[in-house]
Amino acid sequence: MDLKYAQLAGRATALLGKYGKPVTVIVREIDTGQPWLPDAQEVRYETRFVQGKNDLTNRPETVIQQGDIFGYLALQDDLPTIDMAAELEIKGKRYQLVQVEPLEPGNVNLMYIFQARA
Description:
Blueprint: H1 3-19, E1 21-31, E2 39-52, E3 69-74, E4 87-90, E5 93-103, E6 111-117
Antiparallel strand pairs: 1-2, 1-4, 2-3, 3-6, 4-5, 5-6
């Protein structure tokens, strides 16, 4: 990892930790002990996020609905790769991810940019 990207990643994590709000990332992990009866369990990861505003240049207007949340999600050491199957829980309310992308300049994952819907 390039030293500049490592410093940038550390700064992003520190700022999201300082100014961010708590959020729970909920990921379903499937235990395939019995192929005909998979057992899915919810695993919860605590992290922080900063709510942002929508950037219409990156999303068509038809994808946005009233009440959608846009923001930046901090990385934690134990946080797995987040995809569209994950959910967010903010102040006891669950949100389904509509769009989630890693912000990773120079192949260094700094944070996730997301759009979520209740």
